[in-house]
Amino acid sequence: MQTQAWRALSPNAQALYPWLRLEWKGDKANNNGQIVLSVRQAAKALGVARNTAARAFHDLQAKGFIVMTEMPALGVSGEAKAPKYELTELGTPFAQSNQGRRLYSRWRKGEDFPIITIKTNNPNGTNGKSRHHFGDDSVIKIGTFRAAQSPK
C-alpha cells in the first residue's frame, strides 16, 4: 500500500484486490497463477456493475498487481470458464523462491504494464436463427485500460 502503483489504483481496483487475495489457498496449497475470480463474481462482491469490475481488473493488470495466466474460455458443454490470475506479490508453486515478481514495484506513472483484453463472445446476442436486442449495460466491453478518460 506504500507504493506509487497502489496509490494510482482506482478505488474499485483497491477494493477488488483483497477479494483476489482471498482466493489464494496459502503457501502449502499454493494456487497462485491459478486464482479464479470472474468479472461477474467480482461485480457482485463489490456491489458494482460488470463494466466497473472489468475496469478494476484492467487497472490491477496495468499497475502490475495481477497477471492473467489463462484466458477465459467457453467450455465444450457451453459453460464459461473464468480467467486465471497470478498475484505478483506472491510466489508461484513453480518458482524457486516464495517471493513473487512484485511487478507493481517497477510501475511508474505513464508506464502501465500491458493488459490482456477479452473480446465478448457473441456481443450482439445472435444465434443465427433470431436476433436479440440488449441494452449497452448487458454486454461487457473490455478494452485497454486508460486512466482518467471517460469510456466511449
Keywords:
two-stranded antiparallel sheet; globular; 152 residues; alpha+beta
The best one-word shape is globular
End-to-end CA span: 31 Å
> Strand content of the residues, in percent?
5-15%
Computed Rg: 16 Å
Number of strands: 5
- Main-sheet strand order equals 1-5-2
Largest sheet: 3 strands, antiparallel
Structural class: alpha+beta
> Can you count the helices?
4
Uncertain regions spanning at least 5 consecutive residues? 129-142
H-E order: HHEHHEEEE
Total number of distinct structural domains? 1
Instruction: Let me know the average pLDDT.
Output: 82
Tell me what you see in this structure.
This protein has four helices and five strands; from the N terminus they run ααβααββββ. It has 152 residues and is α+β, with helices and mostly antiparallel strands. It has one domain. The strands form two sheets. It has a three-stranded antiparallel beta sheet with strand order 1-5-2. A two-stranded antiparallel ribbon has the order 3-4. Helix 2 (11-22) crosses helix 4 and helix 3 (39-46) crosses helix 4 (50-62). The protein is globular and about 40 Å long. The model is unreliable at 129-142 (pLDDT under 50).
